[in-house]
Amino acid sequence: MTDKMVIEAQPEANAAPEVLSGVAQVKATLKSMGFVDDTLIDVVIAKHGEDIDSCASELATASEWASLLDDLAEMGFEDRKRNTTLMLKNGGNIKRTVRDLIEA
C-alpha cells in the first residue's frame, strides 16, 4: 500500500507544464520578482507593453513613493491605488499628479 501512495503522489509524466506567453508571462515574471500589486502591474504593462525591464524598473521606482503617497493622503486624496497609478503616469511628479487629481 505504501508503494501505491508514492506512485499516486508523483505528477503524471505526460502532464506538460503550463507555458505562458505575452502579457501573462510578463505578469508572472514581475510577480516572481516580488511585485504583487496587480493594479500597478497592469498600469506598467499598459505603458510599456511586454518590456519586462521597463516594467520592473518603473515598479521599483514606485516602491519608493510611500512618503509622497502619504502626502497626497494628507491633502485629502486618499485613494492610494489611484494616486499610485497617476504617479506612474506622471513619472513620479507629484505636482502633475495633484493637477490630475484636481481636474478629475
Topology at a glance:
Elements: H1 2-9, H2 22-32, H3 38-48, H4 52-62, H5 66-74, H6 80-89, H7 94-103
Helix pairs in contact: 2-3, 3-4, 3-6, 6-7
Describe, in plain words, how this protein is organized in 3D.
This protein is mainly α. The longest helix has 11 residues, at 22-32. 17% of the residues are buried. It has helices at 2-9, 22-32, 38-48, 52-62, 66-74, 80-89, 94-103. The protein starts with a helix and ends with a helix. Helix 2 crosses helix 3 and helix 6 crosses helix 7. The protein is elongated and about 45 Å long.
> In which range does the helix fraction lie?
55-70%
3D shape: elongated
Order of helices and strands: HHHHHHH
- The percent range for strand residues is under 5%
Number of strands: 0
Q: Total helix count?
A: 7
Taking Cα atoms only, what radius of gyration do you get, to the nearest Å? 20 Å
Which stretches are poorly predicted, pLDDT < 50 over at least 5 residues? none
Could you tell me the mean pLDDT?
85
Biggest sheet character = none
Indicate the structural class. Answer: mainly alpha
